[in-house]
Amino acid sequence: MAIIETEAALHEAHRDNHTHRDVNGGWLRPAVFGAMDGLVSNLALMTGVAGGSVSQHTIIITGLAGLAAGAFSMAAGEYTSVASQRELVEAELDVERRELRRHPQDEEDELAALYVARGVEPGLARQVARQLSKDPEQALEIHAREELGIDPGDLPSPLVAAVSSFGSFALGALLPVLPYLLGATALWPAVLLALAGLFACGAVVAKVTARSWWFSGLRQLALGGAAAGVTYALGTLFGTAVG
Hints:
Elements (H helix, E strand, L loop, with lengths): L1 H16 L10 H23 L5 H47 L1 H14 L4 H11 L3 H13 L9 H24 L6 H22 L3 H30 L1
Helix pairs in contact: 2-3, 2-7, 2-8, 2-9, 3-4, 3-6, 3-7, 4-5, 7-8, 8-9
């Protein structure tokens, strides 16, 4: 009885610890990329303009314009990119679907050969391939996974990617503008808030990717700070030259 209870506990622990995160959902990459891009690009844009010794009003307009332009650009780009990828996958699935309809035996042989190549005994591989090929939709799903490396039922959504990208970019790009909207007259509050946001984003991403939070946060902080420093220097240089 004790052995059975121990085995049951081990099975329960394995089940609880053997779940995986969604890596193909279509929202994580555009959301993360959008937030980082919004922070870095708008911070760099605003510091570059501020380096030219312009007015506070000009910096605010620049930041808001950068937010709007970047968010719409990111959303359009993500939608087009993901939609094109999805259309390509669907075209390949149509090819596979036609082959399954026209040459079912050849496709079954192909599936059996794949299992044999992975170490399954030929007779068993043939039985498994025959069983899986009885349902056309199941056969399509298996062939898509084995040959194309995709899951037909889990294709990324262009709309989800676009909305995630738009919202995350706008949120990231808002941080450098926020101190000015609240009455700040100097650049340093915007820089500090943006850099803190970059570190926080990097740390949050580490929770999903299992990377150490401090390394991911410091990496984003360093990249964003470098971009802001370079553009500020260029803005100062060009502002002096033009002036």
